[in-house]
């Protein structure tokens, strides 16, 4: 077993969509010295791929990129079976009328950026130009025809009176494919998992417990969201109950389709076969 002379580094997505997994999660109660690294998805993505993080929730696309060296932890995801409410395209014309325009992309994630590219190419037959920008809607729309925002940036922008058409990518994906869409998964390096089976089991149990407690008792989570982000109790109750935090067979099938389309369009350079961690075996999703 590898001897860790440093704390085990565990990622935490800065956005509210992952809060249920952490609201009742206490890193100090883990049996091995560990530390949370709180960042936007793009930073966590890079950390897991360059091995500066041991375990982290990452954009689903980032898992696809590193799938040959990573495993997905069971029972954990940020998914939606329809509207997600925080993966939003803002535009002056309906998405089906955009065509080959200029679209500004948030620099904070990868899954949603590539989901938009898949939708524009395969559903609408369009070939827009894409420019990566800081997630500021006013600046993005000053120079581009549409703008993609995710997470809390998207939520705040959806509350503004800007007059733009708002398209929910989760809703478009569900209507088009009939599948749910997974935006983030919890990942671990295969080698680290093999050398720390008991600890990974403990970690999964802690995350799942936090998820279950958070969703069973939403009031404190909602209050924290209202305090930090704004909005109303009604909005956040609806937001958290709308999302799905599991990773069952149905959700895995939707993610596999996303990976297949990404490979088909050259967004991924290899086919992805989802590998699930379990206590003593490596489980490959069939499909």
UniProtKB/TrEMBL annotation:
EC number, UniProt record: 4.2.1.151
Pfam families found in the cross-reference section: VitK2_biosynth (PF02621)
InterPro entries: Menaquinone_biosynth, MqnA
Pathway recorded for this protein: Quinol/quinone metabolism; menaquinone biosynthesis
Reactions the enzyme catalyzes: chorismate = 3-[(1-carboxyvinyl)-oxy]benzoate + H2O
Keywords: Lyase, Menaquinone biosynthesis
Annotated GO MF terms: lyase activity
SUPFAM superfamilies: Periplasmic binding protein-like II (SSF53850)
Family: Belongs to the MqnA/MqnD family. MqnA subfamily.
PANTHER family (alphabetical): CHORISMATE DEHYDRATASE
Role: Catalyzes the dehydration of chorismate into 3-[(1-carboxyvinyl)oxy]benzoate, a step in the biosynthesis of menaquinone (MK, vitamin K2).
Name of the protein described by the UniProt record: Chorismate dehydratase
Gene: mqnA
């Amino acid at each position: 077993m590898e001897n860790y002379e440093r704390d085990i580094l565990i990622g935490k997505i800065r956005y509210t969509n992952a809060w249920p997994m952490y609201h009742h999660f206490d890193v100090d109660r883990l049996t091995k010295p560990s530390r949370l690294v709180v960042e936007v998805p793009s930073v966590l993505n890079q950390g897991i791929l360059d091995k500066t993080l041991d375990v982290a929730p990452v954009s689903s696309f980032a898992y696809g990129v590193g799938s040959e060296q990573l495993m997905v932890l069971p029972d954990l995801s940020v998914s939606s079976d329809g509207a997600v409410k925080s993966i939003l395209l803002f535009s002056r014309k309906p998405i089906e009328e955009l065509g080959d325009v200029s679209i500004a992309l948030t620099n904070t994630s990868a899954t949603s950026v590539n989901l938009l590219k898949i939708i524009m190419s395969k559903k609408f037959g369009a070939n827009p130009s894409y420019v990566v920008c800081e997630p500021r809607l006013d600046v993005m729309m000053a120079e581009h025809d549409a703008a993609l925002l995710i997470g809390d940036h998207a939520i705040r922008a959806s509350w503004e009176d800007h007059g733009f058409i708002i398209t929910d990518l989760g809703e478009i994906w569900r209507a088009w494919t009939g599948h749910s869409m997974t935006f983030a998964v919890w990942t671990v390096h295969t080698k680290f998992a093999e050398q720390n089976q008991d600890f990974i089991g403990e970690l999964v149990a802690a995350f799942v417990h936090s998820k279950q407690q958070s969703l069973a008792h939403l009031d404190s989570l909602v209050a924290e969201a209202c305090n930090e982000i704004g909005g109303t109790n009604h909005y956040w109750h609806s937001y958290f109950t709308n999302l799905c935090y599991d990773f069952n067979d149905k959700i895995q099938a939707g993610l596999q389709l996303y990976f297949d389309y990404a490979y088909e369009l050259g967004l991924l350079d290899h086919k992805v076969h989802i590998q699930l961690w379990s206590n003593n075996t490596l489980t490959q999703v069939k499909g």
